[in-house]
Amino acid sequence: MGDAAVREAACACGGLKLRLKGDPEYVSSCACQACQRRTGAPFGVTAIFSQDQVIEQHGEAKVWRRIAERGAWIDYSFCPTCGTTVSWLAEGRPGKIMAAGGCFADKDFPPPQRMIWTEHRADWVRPPEGVPEYTGPP
User: What is the pTM of this model?
Assistant: First the structure.
């Protein structure tokens, strides 16, 4: 990753930040009800990075553990001041860290490569043209 760009995900108040080197391995949008509730939006955007790409985590984070539909845990790290979820770790993705796509104030951030759990999406939500859709997990 020699000259890879440094990306920063930050909460709304700027108190919790995650700096990563390079592009995410994958970007996915998800319309499941858990992502809707986590984001307060009709879908979430997840950027998946290798833990090796983490440069620095700055600020205090609170962690909330959710047990997913398949029984595996997901630990969400959020800012205790503004409540923004910045990143999470998932039992089913060892060695990976997921970051909320909306926390990157970067208009050139890579677009989602798929949309999952579309059975829960609002009728007016559509992925970008050519992006595959899955009614459940891929």
Answer: 0.88
